[in-house]
Design a protein that fits this description.
Two copies of one chain form a homodimer.
Chain A (H helix, E strand, L loop, with lengths): L2 H6 L9 E6 L2 E7 H6 L7 E3 L4 E3 L6 H17 L10 E4 L9 E4 L3 H4 L2 E13 L2 E9 L10 E3 L1 E4 L6 H13 L3 H4 L3 E12 L2 E13 L13 E8 H10 L7 H11 L10 H11 L5
């Protein structure tokens, strides 16, 4: 699989298996048709139409919406429709920075096809003109993509934390990076994608950071989410990305973006344009 | 005008003023309807339909196509339809890296709405944790955007030169950067856009480079294209981008991309997502 194909894996063109769900007339997610039909059991919360699902308008506050949808999510978990309970709340809004409309258990986010946000940090070390990247391997008990390769530090954005605060928290928990060093992480852009993963729609926006680490820094994981770290050559990382699915699905584009930004690829190489623009073309339409 | 609006300025959604033109059934450009009608005068070269214009299939080699279209372009220049003759050939292909189908005088590129390529280099200086960027002001006699602010080094990709060779040439001509230093420029990505500029369609792909310069380096222009250089603070550049149209139309996104990649903006600022993803959304569909 070429690196460009690895990016295509993170996009979906055909949404015919899904229908929109709306709050106050504004679309905030996509429901798979069978999930939408399952919501017919909760007529006090959802109006289920064949073309779209609307949250009932009497749920007109953040607290009402969070409580009513929360009850449905717990019922869906008992029915096995929501799986892998995280006990972690994400904010749901039409787009980033808008006032959240409700809070939603993280495990329900892809079931309701709402936008989620995360931070991903490339921890790297310079060796003269060369760069090496710290790569983590996810613990075998992770609910998503166990055992896969990952960024040094990454995490979903929980309700009420801004990206930098979340990054500082994750730096400490995932890699033992103290706050003063974590604060040197540089925001370097955003990747957004809409993709099918395990038959659910993920609409994620990742805030990307680079952190240059001292050559003698050794990461240590505190929260059990990362089994081991390795400082890897960029050529080895490129080969793994090209030849295997060893990297977590959404870490592949983050690292391809890192490789592009740091000059690992050259415009004179075949496919450079396609790869660099492939990152841009992941991004679903605005809104 | 917000920086996001500055990006929107580099995109066009409505192509109804244009019709496709094709070679061998493959679209390679867009012609404004009045330009398409003007091509009715050259029935041995173009088949002009109301929905599309096709190059005549008997023009079945690079040399035949270049000669026949070249004759038409000279005639269009005499009629004032092609303006600002450059005497510089660009390669025309369906997409980058494919075998060129013909060579075309640069002044005709936006008239025929074909894809063009260029290199843009951000020349910067570090001052502790801060960064300053060298900005050029275009000479008052430039055919495009005279007097506007520009990257330190930038240039269209002429027929037969690859991006790095072109960058080295432009570094010497535009800023007096010798080859060993120019070779340290790092490719950092690609920006593509399709926009209306002076009523013509520009479909450009820019190969972006960053070059860190020594603090004592002073650029000198040799080709008369840049009137003066200034080493500017990023805050000042951001203010000029926000408040004026002083930057050349396609340099604005290049510099916004630089500011995003170098952490000048933070995810916690309002509009960060919109700005970072706005760069990605410039990119027209693949092909």
């Amino acid at each position: 699989m070429s690196l460009s194909d690895r990016l295509l894996h993170c996009s979906i063109a055909d949404l015919s298996a899904f229908r929109p769900w709306t709050i106050g007339g504004v679309q905030i997610g996509w429901l798979r048709h069978d999930v939408a039909e399952a919501l017919c059991a909760y007529p006090s919360v959802f109006s289920v139409g064949t073309d779209a699902v609307a949250l009932k308008p009497h749920l007109d506050s953040f607290d009402y919406r969070s409580a009513a949808v929360g009850d449905v999510v717990r019922a869906l978990a008992e029915r096995g429709i929501v799986q892998g309970w995280r006990n972690e709340a994400f904010a749901v809004a039409a787009s980033y920075g808008e006032t959240p409309l409700l809070r939603l258990e993280r495990a329900a986010v892809p079931v309701f096809g709402v936008k989620a946000y995360g931070v991903h940090m490339n921890g790297f070390v310079r060796d003269g003109d060369r760069i090496k990247l710290w790569i983590g391997r996810r613990a075998d008990n992770r609910p998503i993509e166990p055992g896969k390769l990952d960024n040094m530090v990454a995490g979903g954005l929980p309700f009420g934390l801004d990206p930098m605060a979340n990054l500082i928290k994750e730096c400490a928990e995932e890699a033992g990076i103290a706050e003063p060093l974590a604060r040197r992480a540089r925001p370097v852009g955003v990747i957004a994608y809409r993709m099918l993963h395990e038959d659910l729609l993920r609409q994620d926006t990742l805030f990307l950071y680079d952190l240059e680490l001292p050559a003698d820094f050794v990461p240590t994981n505190a929260d059990g989410e990362i089994a081991e770290f390795r400082l890897m050559e960029l050529d080895e990382i490129e080969a793994i990305l090209s030849e295997s699915e060893a990297f977590k699905f959404n870490v592949a584009p983050v690292i391809i973006d890192f490789l592009v930004r740091h000059g690992h690829f050259h415009p004179d190489q075949p496919g450079y344009c396609e790869l660099a623009l492939g990152l841009a073309r992941l991004s679903p339409p605005a809104g």
